[in-house]
Each structure stands twice: as C-alpha cells, then as structure tokens.
Amino acid sequence: MSEYIDREAAISAIRGELEKENLSNAASHYARQGMGTAISVVSKLPAADVAPVVHAYWTDGNSTKRYDPKTDIYPYCSNCRKPSAYDCGGGHVATPGCPWCHAVMDLQEADHA
Ligand SMILES: [Zn+2]
C-alpha cells in the first residue's frame, strides 16, 4: 500500500535535521551538501494524484450532536450538512463515508471544530 507525504513537510524535516547537528565547519559543509542533494531529490519527485482526507461524523441535523438512530430521523454530515443516502428500504443509512463530500465518518463530536 502506498503512503503519501507532504513535499514541503519533507523538505522542512530534512532542513530541521541539519539544524539539530552541532558539526564542525568541515562536517557541516558535507552535511549541507548531502541535505541539499536530499532536498533536490525530494523536490523533483512527481506529485501523486491524491486528495486530502476530510474527517467528519453523522449528526442529528439540528446541532453538532452525534446521530442516534433510535431518536433521530436522518443522519446529516457534520462537514457538508447534507443528509446521508437512502437505503433500499426508503430510510437513510449512516454509511462509513459521506456520499456527497466523501468525508470519512471517524470523528468524535469533540474533535469537530
Ligand atoms: Zn458530507
């Protein structure tokens, strides 16, 4: 499985490593040269075709309160505020992801700003 990283974060981390070192002038020269090569390599890597993951949860639709199938009619996305999709029985179903904004429903109420 592929994992993706933020290019700017990688370059910043490489630069941060050099700042941590307490090197002599000669060692610092070679360390900077190596870090420059690493930054150049990371800068030239092709960008992956990925989208940021949005995290949300199903609400009751009237507030930020978590959806409760026993008391609430439809689940609403805490990110886009749209209701979930219909299931085959004519009701709505709280799916693992929002069918409209593609948010992953893995947040807790307190996590949502
Ligand atoms: Zn949504």
Short overview:
This protein is mainly α. The chain is built from 2 helices and 2 strands, in the order H-H-E-E. Strands 1-2 form a two-stranded antiparallel ribbon.
List SSEs in N-to-C order.
HHEE
Count of alpha and pi helical runs: 2
How large, in whole angstroms, is the Cα Rg?
A: 23 Å
Structural class call reads mainly alpha
How many domains? The number is 2
The ligands found in this model are: zinc ion
Fraction of residues in helix: 25-40%
What percentage of amino acids are in beta strands? under 5%
Strand order of the largest sheet: 1-2
Label the overall shape.
Answer: elongated
**Average pLDDT, all residues:** 88
What composes the largest sheet?
Answer: 2 strands, antiparallel
Described by its quaternary structure, the protein is: single chain
Distance between the termini: 31 Å
- Segments where pLDDT lies below 50 for 5+ residues? none
Number of strands: 2
List the helices and strands and how they pair.
Layout: H1 7-20, H2 25-44, E1 58-59, E2 76-77
Antiparallel strand pairs: 1-2
Helix pairs in contact: 1-2
The structure holds zinc ion (ZN).
Description:
There is one protein chain. The protein is mainly alpha-helical and 113 residues long. It has 2 helices and 2 strands; from the N terminus they run ααββ. The protein has helices spanning 7-20, 25-44, and strands spanning 58-59, 76-77. It has a two-stranded antiparallel ribbon. Helix 1 packs antiparallel against helix 2. It starts with 6 loop residues before the first helix and ends in a 36-residue tail after the last strand. The site of zinc ion has 8 residues, from loops.
